[in-house]
Amino acid sequence: MTVARSPAPRLANRPRGRRNLISLTPLIDVVFILLMFFMLASSFLDWRAIELDPPQRAGSGDALTGAMLVEVRAGGLRLAGKAIELPSLVERLRQQTDTDPDLRVLIRPAEGVSLQRTVDVLDRLDTADIDNVSLIGDGR
Q1: Whole-model pTM above 0.70?
Q2: CATH architecture of 67-135
Q3: Residue 2, helix vs strand vs coil
């Protein structure tokens, strides 16, 4: 007994050899929208501001009297001319400000010191609640 096979069903109205094109534009739009969403929703860095007040009077000698001078050098920190590490500096300044709350701390970066190094010192002093800090130059 032989069974007659019918030919495979085909779409009658579709011309042979022509393919529908899939547009990639909506897919690319969706990918860019998702990319923008995640870029705006993510926080890559912890942005914090360090407040710096401008000097009240330029060239005032009274402001330097009784202040502690911290020099930020490429090789390390110096407090009153002596080398000191940052944790020791913070602890020492904290002890000094506990006894004298009006103590003023002057930060002077040396020439060639990166701004990030100076900001690191200012940030550590800020986290240690040492408030009366001024950033000074070398007078040139």
Answers
A1: no
A2: 2-Layer Sandwich (3.30)
A3: coil
